[in-house]
Amino acid sequence: MTTGLQIGDVKIAGRVLMAPMTGITDLPFRVLASKLGAAYVATEMVAAAELARARPDVVRRAAVGGGLPLTVIQLVGGDPVAMAEGARMAEAAGADLIDLNFGCPAKEVTGAACGSALMRTPDQAARIMEAVVGAVSRPVSVKMRLGWDENSHNAADLARRAETLGVAAVTVHGRTRKQFYTGVADWDAVAEVKQAVAIPVIVNGDIITAEQAREALERSGADALMLGRGVYGRPWLAAHLERALIDGTQLQEPYREERLAIVIEHLRASAAFYGLPLGLKMFRKHLGWYIEQAPWPADPLERRAAKARLCRLETPEEVETALTDLWLGVTHLSNFDVENRTQVFEAVA
């Protein structure tokens, strides 16, 4: 089985990618996921027009650095000129790949004729693709949905236009905009896109387990897959699924000390990146997911209470101490180092 993916001239050391997610895939998360083995983690969705205006919070979403082996910046917008300028800025900042968002279903995005609203205006989508491809030397990809609704599946047609215009890859979420995240992702419909183009096609939607990863690839015929909400509280998931696809090995979920070290590294990185108190505020949603995903305490009600308690704490030090006590039953921090982990990728015997 192929173990990598090539988009344009960029070689990616894996076929399990992490999607751009607003409020999730900031620089601290991307660096951590990369350390844990993810080959591709895109930035949050970055508004191209606001990036061109250098709005501080938008510039921060496009932040690069941290020793990342690959930088993918996703842009959203409805104006070809602004998207081209945003792409030039992304390239100048160090982007290896530039991804265009034609898939976000959020009302505030589609209401501005952006995201998946562009599935309804394919001519405008084509103008954006042409402008961006012409503005940069780095490969350009597009993330889209099947269409606006069940009566307008046009992903294959749009992918053909993308390929003609020089787009190097397309990702297709197996739902329409009307579905948002309800129902079931249609991996078979993604196969129509794969059959329509020669460029790489990446399947997205409802992929959390190794079995789902294999089935999504088999049914869609896609070259790679992209994870979304499944990585909440599990930044190691891409590496685990990658290994399962390569040789069938099932990797253990991080246990107490390993998981604690990962969470603490993430917390400290968030505090350093954003400063305080913003860094802790931005981290709280991740903290909630980390606690929900961990099997300790065993009682779900106790876990829920612990989550509520820890998410009210006001300093990183308080969070570290409380989480250590919750998971290890002690009040000193583990000496386990995420850089020298021994069990995160240890195979189940």
TrEMBL record:
Active site annotation, chain numbering: 104
Cofactor(s) essential for the protein: FMN
Positions bound to FMN: 74, 143, 173, 228-229
Domain of life: Bacteria
Ranges of residues in domain DUS-like FMN-binding: 18-295
Entry keyword set: Flavoprotein, FMN, NADP, Nucleotide-binding, Oxidoreductase, RNA-binding, tRNA processing, tRNA-binding
GO molecular function: flavin adenine dinucleotide binding; tRNA binding; tRNA dihydrouridine synthase activity
Transmembrane portions of the chain: none
Family affiliation: Belongs to the dus family.
Record protein name field: tRNA-dihydrouridine synthase
Gene name in the database record: dusB
